[in-house]
């Protein structure tokens, strides 16, 4: 029998998330907080649940996930008594939760931790001030920590809540499984680029690259399976566009799914428009190329890679270029050689008394937009759940039905019509 003083206490972590990528981020973050972590899942009520496959891939047991409205969420916290609450939501969702908890004043209340699911390349001030007021805000790199501190200090919010961490998907790379053939993997994204013409351009360039280099395998890594809920909808899936090549499709151009870490284990060159897969590749010491064919623009997200040495065009890749990352750039963005300070900061914060949550925004400084933002989450301007209305169930059913119709249209009907049009 192990003496009680030698056992490691189990840390109960509640994760509130909405979409697949945020479930994955939050679950992996939770796993790093202690050697014994019990994870409880709360689905943000404004979104549908991801599929069982998506939850399992994220490391979450679907049976532990509950979809709750504001009142049910507070009741769950009061019943479950989690030590830590990870809020894996966009800025508006974080603000809604902070206002809700600040008003409810649970005793005891969980330590509230939030952060950014991916790299931060736009809307930095917007997102950060909506998160300000949480007990801890993760900054994924030294560069982020410096920027966040500057913003918070400039508005008088204070930077004490900031803690340097690293993106949770930057885990130990999977063992390499090299093949005899050089492998180029294209990491697709649901929303970038957005237009059909641009996505067809990418497919054509990938096909051309495969023809120019018959000694290479060119793999297109899909983001999600057809019909699954994703953070960003994908109106023109790459597998459909590749099928549209018909007899013009090179034999060495293939489509794959599964975990990015698994794909990287067999990859010699990762190609993307701006996916965080490039960050994973740098961390795993796999060469990566961030495409400039559509320009270097904030809307694409590839401005994040300025100074990295990874920006390249298809023309250069066709000519044999294999970019190499600038080591200093990689270190500044937390991809290599940095320790994670978050677990120790969480342990320290849990051992100290916690005061009331004080979100940066209030009716005193943001009365023009805060009530409208909160109302979208079923919360009143006073931070309390809005009273149930007779038509709330109907509104939820209509919203859910509309999402289902949209997904069915984009993943089933749309591709079918495009195939017919190609006949």
Helix proportion range = 25-40%
Largest sheet: 7 strands, parallel
Separation of the first and last Cα atoms: 72 Å
Question: pLDDT average, as an integer?
Answer: 88
CATH topology of the largest domain: Rossmann fold
CATH architecture assignment of the largest domain: 3-Layer(aba) Sandwich
The CATH class of the largest domain: Alpha Beta
Number of discrete domains? 3
- The counted number of beta strands is 13
CATH homologous superfamily placement of the largest domain: Glycogen Phosphorylase B
Please characterize this protein's 3D structure.
By secondary structure, this protein is of the alpha/beta class. The chain has three domains: 9-170 and 340-375, Glycogen Phosphorylase B (Rossmann fold, 3-Layer(aba) Sandwich); 182-332, Rossmann fold, CATH 3.40.50; 389-416. The chain is 37% helix and 14% strand. Strands 3-2-1-4-5-6-7 form a seven-stranded parallel sheet, sandwiched between helices. The protein has a six-stranded parallel sheet with strand order 10-9-8-11-12-13, with helices on both faces. It starts with 10 loop residues before the first strand and ends with a helix. The model is unreliable at 1-7, 389-398 and 418-423 (pLDDT under 50).
């Amino acid at each position: 029998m192990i003496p009680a003083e030698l056992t490691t206490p189990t840390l109960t972590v509640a994760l509130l998330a909405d979409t697949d990528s945020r479930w994955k981020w939050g679950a992996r973050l939770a796993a790093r907080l202690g050697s014994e972590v019990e994870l409880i899942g709360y689905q943000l009520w404004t979104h549908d649940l991801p599929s069982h496959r998506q939850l399992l891939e994220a490391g979450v047991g679907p049976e532990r996930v509950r979809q709750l409205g504001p009142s049910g969420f507070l009741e769950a916290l009061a019943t479950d008594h989690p030590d830590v609450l990870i809020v894996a939501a966009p800025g508006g969702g974080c603000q809604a939760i902070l206002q809700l908890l600040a008003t409810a004043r649970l005793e005891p209340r969980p330590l509230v931790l939030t952060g950014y699911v991916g790299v931060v390349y736009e809307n930095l001030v917007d997102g950060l001030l909506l998160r300000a007021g949480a007990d801890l805000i993760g900054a994924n790199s030294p560069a982020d920590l410096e920027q966040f501190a500057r913003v918070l200090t400039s508005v008088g919010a204070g930077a004490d809540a900031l803690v340097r961490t690293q993106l949770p998907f930057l885990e130990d790379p999977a063992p390499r499984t090299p093949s005899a053939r050089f492998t180029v993997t294209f990491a697709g994204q649901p929303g970038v680029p957005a237009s059909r013409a641009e996505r067809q351009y990418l497919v054509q360039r990938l096909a051309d690259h495969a023809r120019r280099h018959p000694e290479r395998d060119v793999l297109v890594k899909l983001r999600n399976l057809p019909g699954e809920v994703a953070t960003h909808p994908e109106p023109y899936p790459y597998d459909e566009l590749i099928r549209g090549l018909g007899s013009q499709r090179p034999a060495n151009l293939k489509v794959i799914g599964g975990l990015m870490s698994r794909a990287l284990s067999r990859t010699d060159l990762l190609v993307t428009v701006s996916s965080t897969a490039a960050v994973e590749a740098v961390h795993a010491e796999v060469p990566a190329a961030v495409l400039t064919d559509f320009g270097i623009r904030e809307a694409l997200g590839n401005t994040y890679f300025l100074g990295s040495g990874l920006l390249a065009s298809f023309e250069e890749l066709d000519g044999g270029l294999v970019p190499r990352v600038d080591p200093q750039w990689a270190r500044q963005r937390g991809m290599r050689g940095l320790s994670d300070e978050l677990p120790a900061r969480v342990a320290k914060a849990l051992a100290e008394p916690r005061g009331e949550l004080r979100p940066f925004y209030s009716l005193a400084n943001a009365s023009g937009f805060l009530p409208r933002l909160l109302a979208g989450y079923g919360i009143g301007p006073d931070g309390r759940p809005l009273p149930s209305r007779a038509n709330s169930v109907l509104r939820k059913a209509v919203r859910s039905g509309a999402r289902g119709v949209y997904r069915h249209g984009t993943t089933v009907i749309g591709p079918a019509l495009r195939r017919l049009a190609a006949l």
